Amino acid sequence: AQSVAQPEDQVNVAEGNPLTVKCTYSVSGNPYLFWYVQYPNRGLQFLLKYITGDNLVKGSYGFEAEFNKSQTSFHLKKPSALVSDSALYFCAVSLTTSGTYKYIFGTGTRLKVLA
Amino acid sequence: KAGVTQTPRYLIKTRGQQVTLSCSPISGHRSVSWYQQTPGQGLQFLFEYFSETQRNKGNFPGRFSGRQFSNSRSEMNVSTLELGDSALYLCASSIDANYGYTFGSGTRLTVV
Fold it and tell me: What is the rounded (10 degree) CA torsion for A71, A74, A80, A84?
């Protein structure tokens, strides 16, 4: 079955430290990969996406993500965390197979940045 | 540029009633998807419409239905509401899903 895994329900990091939110996927073909962020009582906001090309993708708010095909991972990173980065983060994949398309979200990881 | 607009923001309904939620996508976006978000189940895909046709459907009972109009606006309907339908319902629009989605702020439905 095709799936997206975010193995950590919550990640705690001190302000100013680097952060990583993990995502791995198990899908056939060459998926497009996305990260979204959700603040309380709001919808999801698009952060960044990987389609092809450079394995390091830069996105909004200083976030970046590294695509690793051999490990089927797409981890979200930021060199220096801010308290305002505290939110719920979702990884997603989009793929098209046999003319049908699927968009699969991970279960989400809550990021807490401590002052 | 206006974002994805969902109305109403909050709803309280009684078990057994039905409800209709509305979503206006970003102008030019023909793909509209609906998701149900609950603390226990996370983000679950309901259905996706593209140019007035349902292109994809998640694993929800037939009580959940939707449609899309010629102006790309979409509605979803839930009939015979159950307590477990209480959730945040999110609508997302896109030119094409491979470009990523823009989400609305959601409609929080409470069934009592």
Answer: -150
